[in-house]
Amino acid sequence: MPSGEDDLIARYFKPIAVHSGALGLADDAAVFTPPPGYDLVLTTDAIVAGVHFLPDDPAATVARKALRVNLSDLAAKGAQAAGCLMTVALPASVDAVWLQGFSDGLSADCADFGCALFGGDTVHTDGPLSVSIFAFGLVPQGKMVRRAGAQAGDRLFVTGTVGDGALGLRLLRELSAALSPAGTQYLIGRYRLPQPRVGAAETLRATASAAMDVSDGLVGDLAKLCAASGVSARIEVARIPMSDPARELLCRDPSMLEPILTGGDDYEILAAIPPARAQAFRDGVAAAGIAATEIGEIVAGDAAPQVIAPDGRALSFARASFSHF
Amino acid sequence: MPSGEDDLIARYFKPIAVHSGALGLADDAAVFTPPPGYDLVLTTDAIVAGVHFLPDDPAATVARKALRVNLSDLAAKGAQAAGCLMTVALPASVDAVWLQGFSDGLSADCADFGCALFGGDTVHTDGPLSVSIFAFGLVPQGKMVRRAGAQAGDRLFVTGTVGDGALGLRLLRELSAALSPAGTQYLIGRYRLPQPRVGAAETLRATASAAMDVSDGLVGDLAKLCAASGVSARIEVARIPMSDPARELLCRDPSMLEPILTGGDDYEILAAIPPARAQAFRDGVAAAGIAATEIGEIVAGDAAPQVIAPDGRALSFARASFSHF
Predict the structure, then answer these.
(1) pLDDT (0 to 100) of residue B3
(2) Which residues of chain A have pLDDT under 70?
């Protein structure tokens, strides 16, 4: 590992900072000229070893997950990513091989998602490794999609599949013989490397009355969207999209429903779409190659959202969403 | 301490997030409409317990220092602060009293410096407490003051006094009987609570060919400014501004010169000013109530900057700047 912070930045992060405004990471700050007519959408999310990723996860996926959890927030707000800054807290155990893997992973995702690295800070810690990313994106002025805004009658959609990440984390901690190696790898991959639904941003701006990133579990995040909008909701378990491996685990062990619906690490988008725009939403996300499934609807009232089982009962959960506290 | 992250944010941080674009910290992201004709200046700096502050420093000064080290960067770039986002990593030992003090300190400084809190993330750590702040400011388009740009003949100025923070940290670790209680408290205060020179921003834009925030020691940071500008420099120890307590410590122990010049934690501004604009610079900062002292000049070449002692010798230092690695 290089001896000083400047050397470390020059070797591992300067090559990624290709935007002219990053000034080669050799200034106190970076500069960005916002295009006229756009708002900036600002978000920050941190991931910590042992909490949001496992200490022996590959360095490249640690970097990519740190960026992608932020890109997922931007996408849910209808924003196009523009740039990011990063703080990494490194324990002494981190070596040059790890740093190179981390840098390579970050570089690949910054390029793939058009999210330029504008700067950062590198600190030493005797605690766990952590990566905090601040990301900013652009939306036409006044067009950010909010959590507030859902109306009774809106259809509720979720992208992709739900529960994979939470099951992947369980499998990393305790391998299950009940699942094929391919299924196991699929779920672990979904935990380590979220797929931010960046292609849905434009369609969300055009069609959604409210939307959010599902990161702490579908049930709890739906409750947050409803609370922000002053409404309630009703979703059906039978309609919730699950991957084949998740469904296979659930068939063998019905208690897996709880982590699937409340475990978090989905990084899918939950959106409330007025009925008149539902087809436009379906068409828009499909054109972007993103699956989206209607799982229920917004209803009036301020009760907790109802999660209806196939037998018609309303389910309740010990805790509605994952909390890191 | 509240049981969940949402409760914690609602209790301690939502009251600070008064800007409408922060959406009460109840959305995935915040929104900021940049004023036309301005560039955004982006910076991030993290502080870690045991490295950048002491674990028993008052919670309020920890919060304020975390913000101020970023405000210092913005000021040095000629930018006016606009907003910030924060990630705090909290160990289990943090209690409600600490959080309230932290929140009060952050609130006071956000208000005093016009730097709105737009969002953040709160994570749990079994390592040291850390605070990472991302701050953004505004400059008229194309007017950010860079490290690159200094020319031979430019006069070198530094604001405030140099070395106080590094001496304050020494006194916190090992109290010196050689200094009065008032002097000791002054230096400790300078370590705990930097004074970002935000009033100098406009004058820097109008007069500086290059500038930077002195955070890692005057000698090392001057070398960075020179390297970025492709020049060298010559400064005189006798002209370097020091506070009375710093000078008193130096009189009793000449070896204190090294921490004063290389120890860091100054958060003053080093600026290269063309001779024709030197008087305008002096007048501008004086009008803002900020002391600035001419300490030397930029010279041609790529040699390391020379630090000239009162007897005419060029000094050398074991290490030119503080490194946290």
Answers:
(1) 57
(2) 1-3, 320-325
pLDDT at site B17: 94
CA distance B44 to chain A (A): 6
CB A117 within 8 A of CB A106: yes
Residues in chain A closer than 8 A to B85 (CB atoms): 42-44, 134
CA–centroid distance for A225 within its chain: 16
Q: Tell whether B35 is within 8 A of chain A (Cβ).
A: no
Strands A292-299 and A314-315: unpaired
Task: Kindly report the nearest CA distance between residue B9 and chain A, in angstroms.
Answer: 12
**Which residues from B are below 8 Å from A325, CB to CB?**
3-5, 8, 124
The ipTM, to two decimals, is: 0.93
Please state, in angstroms and rounded to a whole number, the distance separating the CA atoms of residues B156 and B234: 9
Q: What pLDDT does A320 receive?
A: 63
Asked if B244 contacts B183 with a C-beta cutoff of 8 angstroms, the reply is yes
CB–CB of B40 and A42 under 8 A?
Answer: no
CA dihedral B93, B94, B96, B102 (to 10 degrees): 160
Q: Is A223 on the interface with B (CB under 8 A)?
A: no
Which strands make up the sheet holding A130-140, listed edge to edge?
A116-124, A80-90, A130-140, A38-48, B30-32
> B29 and A141 in contact by Cβ < 8 A?
no
Question: Sign of the CA dihedral A85, A91, A92, A95?
Answer: negative
Per-residue tokens: B223: 């070398």
Residue B215 to residue A238: CA distance in whole angstroms: 58
Provide, as residue numbers in chain B, all residues whose Cβ is less than 8 Å from the Cβ of A228.
Answer: 26-27
Q: What is the mean pLDDT of residues B259-279?
A: 97
Confidence of residue B101 (pLDDT cuts 50, 70, 90): very high
Q: A5 CB near a chain B CB, below 8 Å?
A: yes
pTM over 0.90: yes
pLDDT at B325 over 70: no
First-to-last CA distance in chain A? 33
**Which of A42, A148, A324 minimises the CB distance to B85?**
A42
Closest CB to A31 among B30, B126, B144: B144
pLDDT digits (tens, 9 = 90+) for A184-241: 999 999 999 999 999 999 999 999 999 999 999 999 999 999 999 999 999 999 999 9
Q: How is the beta sheet containing B155-159 ordered, strand by strand?
A: B210-214, B268-273, B155-159, B292-299, B232-236, B306-308, B314-315
Helix (H, G, I), strand (E, B) or coil at B310: coil
CB A131, CB A64: distance < 8 Å: no
Q: CA of B240 to nearest chain A CA: how many angstroms apart? A: 22
Which of B70, B161, B164 minimizes the C-alpha distance to B115? Answer: B70
pLDDT band at B198, cuts 50/70/90? very high
CB B80 within 8 A of CB B196: no
